């Protein structure tokens, strides 16, 4: 059986990492990059508190991209 693995560039450090169930931090290459990105994003959202609707969209996309996360 051939795994359909695609590679994506980490938004934080641009390192290519596999988009697979083995990488719970995708699209980031590691939990560290994920925290860095979330930290920056949190700072921005504190500066612009009116963008809560975008926050909801981001979480929806996350669920859609990680179907294994729930509904089991
Ligand atoms: Zn990274």
Automatic annotation (TrEMBL):
Residue numbers binding Zn(2+):
10, 13, 29, 33
Family annotation (InterPro entries): DNA_gyrase_inhibitor_YacG, Znf_NHR/GATA
SUPFAM superfamilies in the record: Glucocorticoid receptor-like (DNA-binding domain)
**Which molecular function term from Gene Ontology is one that the record holds?**
zinc ion binding
Decide whether keyword Transmembrane is in the record: no
How is the cofactor bound here?
A: Binds 1 zinc ion.
* Alphabetical GO biological process terms: regulation of DNA-templated transcription
Per its UniProt record, the required cofactor names are: Zn(2+)
Q: Which UniProt keywords apply?
A: Metal-binding, Zinc
Q: Which sequence ranges form a coiled-coil region, renumbered to this chain?
A: none
**Superkingdom, natural source:** Bacteria
Stated family: Belongs to the DNA gyrase inhibitor YacG family.
Subunit comment: Interacts with GyrB.
Q: What does this protein do?
A: Inhibits all the catalytic activities of DNA gyrase by preventing its interaction with DNA. Acts by binding directly to the C-terminal domain of GyrB, which probably disrupts DNA binding by the gyrase.
This protein is called DNA gyrase inhibitor YacG
Report the source organism: Marinomonas posidonica (strain CECT 7376 / NCIMB 14433 / IVIA-Po-181)
Q: What is the lineage of its organism?
A: Bacteria, Pseudomonadati, Pseudomonadota, Gammaproteobacteria, Oceanospirillales
């Amino acid at each position: 059986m051939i795994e359909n693995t695609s590679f994506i560039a980490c938004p934080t450090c641009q390192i290519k990492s596999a988009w697979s169930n083995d990488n719970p931090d995708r699209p980031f290459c590691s939990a560290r990059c994920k925290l860095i990105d979330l930290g920056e994003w949190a700072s921005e959202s504190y500066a612009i508190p009116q963008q809560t609707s975008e926050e909801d969209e981001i979480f929806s996309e996350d669920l859609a991209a990680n179907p294994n996360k729930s509904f089991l």
